[in-house]
Specification:
Layout: H1 5-34, H2 42-75, H3 80-100, H4 107-118, H5 120-126, H6 133-143, H7 148-159, H8 163-182, H9 188-195, H10 198-233
Helix pairs in contact: 1-3, 1-8, 1-10, 2-6, 2-7, 2-8, 3-7, 3-10, 7-8, 8-9
Transmembrane segments: 54-72, 84-101, 141-159, 166-188, 200-221
Pfam families: DsbD_2 (PF13386)
Organism: Arenimonas oryziterrae DSM 21050 = YC6267
């Protein structure tokens, strides 16, 4: 199956305009991870941390997408693929609602902070002591923390039922968050104020919701197309 560019675009928009939500929920973790770097290497540290975080997203998306694909192959139920496709569209609509109402369903974000603190001893043993690998591995851990928006997109990755497509979806989402999260301690504040504008956020939510509606309708539209072709093959024509 070809890569669904509509879904990838919706995931990227979710990351870009959901980045303001990420600043509020993960800002403390982001600044804490960057604090140990020398001032001359602050931007490099922030970039490597966020690249690691995006890599964590993509890996998680590939895992859950592969599991979804395995379930689809094992079940082999008629109409299951179409049902999963429609559920994917529903998840995109929910993602759009999260952008409009960013303070709702925030329990996963507070859970992420608690998990991060509990994992501290284990993180210190697993993360390299220095070098460029340290911020990347720290970012990988960061990307696996529970977060409302990323978990919603992870559900979409599972419904993609493909390790490749699930990984690409989460990669697109992560790349959308990159400008704000990398510039958290540098120049992200001005950009964040622009993206926090309700009109921009609502416009992005409307586009994501539209992508979700099209995704929900796609199996039905495909069925209608097959039905039309079948009728034409039988020599049937609609009356003018």
């Amino acid at each position: 199956m070809p890569v669904d560019l509509l879904t990838l675009a919706a995931a990227w928009l979710s990351g870009l305009f959901g980045g303001v939500h990420c600043l509020a929920m993960c800002g403390g973790i982001a600044t804490g991870l960057s604090a140990s770097a020398p001032s001359t290497h602050a931007f490099r540290q922030a970039l490597l941390l966020n690249l690691g975080r995006i890599g964590g997203y993509a890996l998680a998306g590939a895992i859950v997408g592969g599991l979804g694909g395995g379930l689809l192959r094992l079940a082999r139920l008629e109409g299951l693929a179409a049902s999963l496709r429609m559920l994917l569209g529903l998840v995109l609509v929910v993602t759009a609602l999260r952008l409009v109402f960013p303070t709702r369903l925030s329990g996963l974000s507070s859970l992420g902070h608690r998990v991060w603190q509990h994992l501290r001893p284990w993180r210190e043993r697993a993360i390299p002591a220095g070098g460029l690998a340290r911020p990347i591995v720290m970012g990988l851990f960061w990307g696996w923390l529970p977060c409302g928006l990323s978990t919603t997109l992870l559900m979409a990755a599972w419904l993609e039922s493909s390790a490749l497509h699930g990984g690409l979806l989460m990669l697109a989402f992560g790349l959308g968050t990159l400008p704000l999260m990398t510039g958290l301690s540098w120049s992200g504040a001005h950009f964040a104020r622009r993206l926090a504008n309700p009109r921009w956020r609502f416009a992005a939510a409307a586009m994501i919701a539209a992508a979700g509606v099209v995704t929900i309708a796609a199996p039905w539209l495909d069925l209608q197309g097959h039905a039309h072709a079948w009728l034409e093959a039988l020599g049937c024509r609609s009356l003018a």
